[in-house]
């Protein structure tokens, strides 16, 4: 695609990444830093990409949230993963609200469906029940959602 990675500019590498999937600004900056580009060059490149609409943390966050919902992950885990990817709280909150409204997300029903895909019963013993609770908690569902999901099996 490019003459060689040695000759590639920060923009070339960023566009190559973005051609495959959405990335957060922080993820692209991290990858460009590993390629030994100067911070000033990286920031200028990212500012330009954002101005041109080629990179957007809002678009990345919404896409990420949708993909995690499809995987059966809860809001707690999704928020944590977005924070790790450098998405600030305001963008995160707005993206979550937008996806919830557009997709009609019901976290309680998602928890229930996620549990039903993995287990056929709520568990006969406290140990089995705890296993199901841990499964949903690790997926990022809160206590109320877990309780609801267990009551639906």
UniProtKB/TrEMBL annotation:
HAMAP family: RecX (MF_01114). The keyword Cytoplasm applies. The keyword Manganese does not apply. InterPro entries: RecX_HTH_1st, RecX_HTH_2nd, RecX_HTH_3rd, Regulatory_RecX, WH-like_DNA-bd_sf. It comes from the Bacteria. It is found in: Cytoplasm. Belongs to the RecX family. Residues 11-49 form the RecX first three-helical domain. It comes from Halomonas colorata. The lineage of its organism: Bacteria, Pseudomonadati, Pseudomonadota, Gammaproteobacteria, Oceanospirillales. Residues 108-150 form the RecX third three-helical domain. This is Regulatory protein RecX. Pfam families: RecX_HTH1, RecX_HTH2, RecX_HTH3. Modulates RecA activity. Residues 56-96 form the RecX second three-helical domain. Keywords: Cytoplasm. Its main location: cytoplasm.
